[in-house]
## 1
Amino acid sequence: MATPDPHAPAAGETHATTEAAHGGGGGLPQFQFEHWAGQIAWLLILFVIGYLMMSRVFIPRLRKVLDEREGTIAGALAQARQVQEEANAQAAKAQADLAEARGKAQRLAAEARAKANAEAQARQAAEDEKLAGKLAEAETRIRASRDAAMTHVQTIASDTASAIVEKLTGAAPSQADLNAALTAAKGA
Amino acid sequence: MADPLHQFQIQKIVDLPDVTLPVLGTVDLAFTNSHFVMTLAFVIVMGFMAMVTGAAKVVPGRLQSVGETLFGMVDNLTTSIIGHDGRKYAPFVFTLFMLILAMNFLGLVNIPGVVHLFTATSQLAVTATFAVLTIGLVLIVGFGKHGLGFFKLFVPSGVPWPLLPVIILIEFISFLLRPVTLMLRLFGNMMGGHVALKVFAGFVATAAAGAVGYLGLLIGPLAFGMVTALTALEFLVAFLQAFVFAVLTTIYLNDVVNLGHGH
């Protein structure tokens, strides 16, 4: 047995293969350690590539979009807030304008009313004056015509009295008697 | 009844020549079903992100909304837990989250007779890799930022000095257990769910085959309802476990990023 048996390596190989084939017979397949190295190496390779892709490509892209969205939303909110402030300012201004306009209108109205009142009063005063003048004139005229009428009445009375006396007595009374009688009658 | 563990068996799709590495010894290189779903998950995640960000608009479409919601969730997580520095770690956490999420969901793809995808996250090798990646980053950030001050992580402030030795021991052990719990939580949830699904589906098959006689009329519908409910639950778990992994990663990162602030 000095020469090495040529079948020995072959026998060893056969033994190893059978052992691998029957490895799952007893315990869990997960404890067949001959399968570990291949899985671990492959998973490590996949993980490293995956990590590099994630950290270099995918996540920066995702973050960019997320940041962009955040920026867009923040911008839109800021703009909306600004617009609202502007609107508020405009509303306040409009209110102030309105108040001012109302004040002005009220002042104008008051002025117009005062002016109209003054004019009306002045016109009424002028009218009153004119009327008073006309009244006075009319009164004067009436008094003159009454006086004239009164004079005529005296003449008529004197004539009538003279005619009555003449009819009664047959003799015309003197003018002096007539005048005295008329004055006495008037006095009575 | 079919072996409920058979679904976790690694199967070679393309066998590649073994290589012998100095430390690890002989490594069986092959493109297996696990490799296939990992690659599929990777391609889906990358394709999804490319579609989401390719024509990203300020006013998002439906797909973009989904992508933004997922990323926004992780981004909020990192910034709310870590603070402003959290933005730097969002890509790492997001990559982790998306890959785990895709692998979890792919594991639920089962069209009878057409395709039944392998669940990569039910493999300890895969969850261990994710856990080691997380803890590796925690260590790198911890030592990179604080140097030897990293060890202050094990010394909470405000602890009476007689208690310190015990506390330091507990903190140290809990730190060492972090990758283990990360690894086992995801693995256990995925595997447990799939085993339960398989077992109840097996009951349905047994009942339908008439192996239990008239009892099958009772067992069949019950088990079928169970499978339906479990499938819905598994979708929730698939999302939740990916999210939990992301949350814990963020919390562990926060411990070293804000070392001495939060303690």
## 2
Amino acid sequence: MSKPGALDRRLAVRELMVDRGDLLVVSGLGSSSYDLFAAGDHDGNFYLWGAMGGAAVMGLGLALAQPRRPVLVLTGDGEQLMGLGGFATIAAKKPGNLSIAVLDNGQYGETGMQRSHTGLGVDLHRIAAAAGIAAVEIRERAAIAGWRAELHKTSGGPRFATIRVAAENPERALPPRDGVFLKNRFRQYLGFAVT
Amino acid sequence: MRSFARAVRQAEGAGGASATTAAWPDAVYGVLKDAGIRQASYVPDAGHARLIERLHADAEIQTTVLTTEEEGIALAAGAWLGGQRSVLLMQSSGVGNCVNMLSLLGSCRFPLLTLVTMRGEWAEFNPWQVPMGRATPGVLEAMGVKVARVDQADEVAEAVSAASVLAFDSDQAVAVLLSQRLLGRKKWTGK
């Protein structure tokens, strides 16, 4: 069974967001959205508060629509586990500008720290790799900086990383919950007028 | 209300043009092009076969095959975030797979245009299709999706055109249900 991670999830996401440039980010519901917001709010962030299992494929739709921009989906192990079929859909479509990072603490953190499938030995990066996605496992802060350079590329994807983080619930940092606001803000950032 | 038996006789008398030979899928393709659709996704259905072929053959439209229909809801939302209009094709059995994901559309007022081929109604031979076919319009409406049903081949293109305006100009989630009678009887293969 895989060893649980030791990385601080807030630190890991801050490290991932350094020099974000024109990176567009979709975050999965729960802690991943809090982590992204805590790393610095940005008009190019779209925080999900629901739609569990949909983050990665939402990132696919965005990546196909914006092929000249890098797109990152930042989500948790539980959220990704609900959308495993998305690995096949993304691998078949091969969007060069899409990267997916799963903050894997092996737990369903929002609901009382019940152990998840990854905490019971299932490796998401191995499932992603079997589907045909370039996938890595990250356990150390230094490796995040290395992968960060990859996710700014708009070709060579899709990419996937399991980032092993410690099972802890840091203080909540709550991004806006109004979906219409988040949608319009994001589209305006890309130059689409709100009509 | 017209009796089922009489309606069956009328359809048989009309020759029962199947979806693979009918003209309406090409007309729908033209409507989607005129509406500026740039992405399409689907879980296949025989009734959508011709339209899927046309979409795949179009280099200006990114067409994505899904493992489950709920992916198509998330994909459509992502496409819209990135400034593109999309269409989602599915069979009525797939509507049940979408329920929680449809909350994404309501929460963010994302547009959705989906074309749903119906099973479990006209000349259905598989009883397992009946429960979800019966529930399809109610499930969609319960999740805030506007539903338009089309029974006549010559009304499909106009219905899709109207649905696309409602979806993309009024930020609504819209489903066009294509009736099983319109699609024609499904042929058993290997017999």
